[in-house]
Amino acid sequence: MLAAEDEASFQARLADPAVTVGIPVLVDATEIEPADSVERVHCMAERVARNASRLKCGPTAIVVSSDVEYGMARMYMALTDQIHPQTNVFRDTNEALEWLRSAAARLS
């Protein structure tokens, strides 16, 4: 279950007119500390995938800056493949943006 402030933040995103069905998403995780355990990745994957599903997100590119983050993000991709299959991990923002443009064009 989401904490009250998380739920309020989520509801605000749902109400944002810029959030439309299929919107491409760029997640800049370059400044985020990587998860410290596989269990934490599982928990985060379940929560993020549930939210992505509720928001009806489109292609999602995750940009990371370290090998550990890359491995954790790849684990996230595997865990959420059934719920949110259009996810990819990158080390370079420009590559991520190009992939998002290409993925969005394929869906159009």
What is the tally of beta strands?
A: 3
Overall average pLDDT: 80
Number of helices: 4
Order of strands across the main sheet: 1-2-3
Portion in strands? 5-15%
The total number of structural domains is 1
Largest beta-sheet characterization: 3 strands, parallel
- Uncertain spans, ≥5 residues at pLDDT below 50? none
What this model shows, in words?
- With 108 residues, the protein is mostly helical.
- It has one domain (21-107).
- Helices cover 55% and strands 11% of the residues.
- It is built from four helices and three strands.
- The chain has helices at 4-15, 38-55, 67-80, 93-107; strands at 25-28, 60-63, 87-90.
- A three-stranded parallel β-sheet has the order 1-2-3, with helices on both faces.
- Helix 2 links the parallel strand 1 and strand 2.
- It is globular and about 35 Å long.
What order do the helices and strands come in, and which of them pair?
Layout: H1 4-15, E1 25-28, H2 38-55, E2 60-63, H3 67-80, E3 87-90, H4 93-107
Helix pairs in contact: 2-3
Question: Brief description of this entry?
Answer:
By secondary structure, the protein is mostly helical.
